[in-house]
Amino acid sequence: MLLEDINPSNQEKLYHKDIGFPDDINMPRGFNPIMRLSYGNHARQAAFEEKYGVLNLPQVVDLRKVNVFEVGVTGKTVTKVVFRMPHDDLNDIVIVVTPHNGFVKTVWANRKTDTHKTLDRSKYSDPKRRG
Predict the structure, then answer these.
(1) Cα torsion through 70, 76, 80, 86, rounded to 10
(2) Are strands 13-16 and 67-74 parallel, antiparallel or unpaired?
(3) Which of 47, 61, 70, 117 is 20 to 30 A (C-alpha) from 105?
(4) Which of 24, 27, 33 is nearest to 1 (CA)?
(5) Helical H runs in the chain?
């Protein structure tokens, strides 16, 4: 499925790993888990202005080796992936990417000790509930 094949009337649903990812979703046509990343102006500026210091932006990522914790799904196709990976001794980097082309929408840092124990479940769909 290409992004152009997605019905524009379908709204993107967000899923979080702690609630669960649906079993019946697909990555976009041509998807490769080893992605070359490209950064827009917003992502580059966010990396430069990060409160924990300037972020070094990776050029390539293997999604099988990072912590994917959120996906956006339109129809049955993944249209957004949010992942966390090590950055330096104190921080991880969080990257929001479109998986069909590796375009990074934004980035930020999280302290390695910040494990987000308070998840706002209202932001996410539950794949166990249909409807």
Answers:
(1) 40
(2) antiparallel
(3) 117
(4) 27
(5) 41-48
